Input
Amino acid sequence: MTLPTLNRRAVTAGMLAGGAVFALPGVTLAQSGADAARRAVEQAVAAVNRTIASGESTQAMYNDFERIFAQYADIPTIARSTLGVAARQASAAQLQAYTSAYQGYVARKYGRRFREFVGGEIKVTGVNPIKSYYEVVSTAYTRGNSPADVRWHVSTSSGSPKFFNIIIQGVNMLASERTEIQAILDQQGGSIDRLTRALQSA
Output
């Protein structure tokens, strides 16, 4: 998959949001949900930036990014979405193996680009309720590039905010990932097991 320009690519690395819903006295459920979604994105961005600035080895950074992704993203939802209709034909064991492989694949894939984000900054500017989830609006700033509009889709339905998609300058990352995974699945003859092995070695 060819990702958008640097400021979009780098920020996608922040692919990752989470945190707890805080029940605050006098705050409505909608307000607390919106606040939690906003904090989730802010915490995720902070975690990514700490890793970028850590000076760790490349492999150590990949491990950190995978941990962040596992903590903050709704990985089962994302993985099933990228797998598409094939997910309905997969066994529970196949889905589990694929989800684990996809998690590592995404961490390595975007981790290779995270270094380009050194010195960058993402500022959250607002939250919009959309049906059953929240859209956290932010702006990404990177060296030598125009600011990029970044919108994080965060669900609080599980009781803990989890990111499941990012829209960067109008580009839907979940849709892009789905297209790429479907192409790899086709290359593997429609075999979920071979797809899983391909992601493990990518």
Summary: The beta strands are 121-130, 133-141, 148-155, 162-168, 171-172. The CA atoms of residues 82 and 178 lie 4 Å apart.
